[in-house]
Design a protein that fits this description.
By secondary structure, the protein is α+β, with helices and mostly antiparallel strands. It is 64% helix and 7% strand. The protein is globular, with a radius of gyration of 27 Å. The protein starts with a helix and ends in a 12-residue tail after the last helix.
Length: 625
Amino acid sequence: MSKGKNLDHRVALALRLARMGLNRLAEQTLKRACAESPDRVDLHRHLAEMALERADGVRAAEIVTRTLDHAGDPASLLVAADAALAAGDLTQAAQRFSAARDRSGEMPDLFLRSLVGSARAAYLMGEFEDASHWLDTALLQHPIGDGLARLIGDLGGILPDWRRLQHTIENLRRQRPDDSYPHYLLARLLAAAQARYAPGIPNTEIERLLRLALEREPGFHAARLMLALRLARRRFLSDTARDQSLSTLRFLSQALRLDSDALGVDAGLIDLLIAALLDETPGTTAQAIDFYLAGLRRLPGHSVASNNLGVLYLTRGETTAARRWFLAALAASPHYDPAYLNLVRTLDLAASPEQIAQEVDGLVATLSAPSTVVTGRIVAAMAEDARNQVFEALHAKGSQLHNLLGVVTARLKSALGPASADGLWERLDELTSRLDELRLEWGQYLRSMLEADESPTEVLNLNLLAREVARDESGHEAQRIDFDAAPALPDIKGQRASLYEALVAIVRNGLEAQPPASPPLVLRTRPWSPLATRVVLEVRDYGPGITTSHRAQLFVPGFSTKRERSGFGLSLARRIISAHRGWIELEPAPERGTIVRVVLPTDLHGLPALLDQRHGYPYVVPLKE
């Protein structure tokens, strides 16, 4: 076999490994190919693209600087531009997209990519009119593939003048009545605008457009996938929507087995998405396990799915199988905290300390991460598991205290007669009001200690929920709030009322810390990781900050630095976020103040966002995990 063919086979293997989620192996394979043939620009381009897919803009920029900067061909220029975009060098990105436009006139696909790239750069630079111009120009090109249609629709829907692009797409629909793509483009545009707070866009209209696209082209799998995900968002409100979503995904799973390149994503991801839907439905555990196993055979490096499969085995009492999958999750992602917590639940914590130590040593030896990291995370997971058990036991006693507070408050109120001398009535009235407030707050805290309460689970948009909290808590000019919402943020799943309550407690705490004439409180949402399995809400205040001595007590029930406060707000928020499988972080802000970071898992473990990103690089640069 010639050297060139051998390299081509190695590249094909690397790309296959990347699709399977085995990123380190894929990168090592490509690096060896690059070392053997350092002049092959396409090899370095693939290496940079892999870095971009996992949102490592710094690594992509290094590869570009070393090998692609002077290549000059449009494909390399586009990858270099994407790398600059991911690294935050917007001016450099815009220049490279412009150069790619000038050099790709005879290559329609690359020219279209350069137009969409220019729009992305303009959007991030705040040049919204330029972004609209480039998208308008892109819409005049033909044909438009699935991935670029997604980017055009999603980016267009978050622009201030998205209605202008809607008008352009409506014209396309009239000009090309039998073309499926204008319907899909409009559905993406309306979905993005809907998620960006535009009023009056019903879900039924988006779904109708997707069905129109499928009527014109039954094999339009990108439209079918989007329809399935839209239906899945309504699964808690409608059993019909859930059933239709599952049947559509099953159809896609079979179609991708016949034509693995039909959608641009591996069939294993569709299987994992089906498994995630079945996972939360009573009575379908066995089916969920089958689909997890099928997906993981194709994508063995998927840590979230491995962890979820382990949980299913754990609920069935199959501890050995559960532990094997938790270890598989950690082998793929050594810092994946949920797998550590679940792994601890497979240990016999009633055993002697020596036996537990032996088990922990065995786990440390199994995993490839440094032993200090593994040991520290296992110990932290043990502490978290113990804390959860303590809170569950405390709930029963806490309920008795809650009832007692109610009795004391009622008797004090009944004892209050006509106003008495020396201000006694006023003092008693103040006391009963304070006890009543304490009883209500304690009741809220007790409810938050349960894993679930009576409020329904919903699929929620964190941007919309945070915007509502910001609006309700702004109050007056002295409590100004700046809200920086990330576009195209993945959905979360949870109980709306309790999450709202938790966010209000955190925002209110930040507002109370703000000194007079300080800058506004800042709320900011972002994806947390490259695969968007979590999202984050940051609350940044400009107060005096948190002392070291107070930091350890901040989430302790009843602790407050303010004499007039009961100290249940932040502890209540922490219990609610923990019940939603999330966590809260604190850190000092630059110069002064505090940043409170709320991290929540996305709906269906981030799989919809992962499916979407495989069509092209995300235009929002996520935070590093």
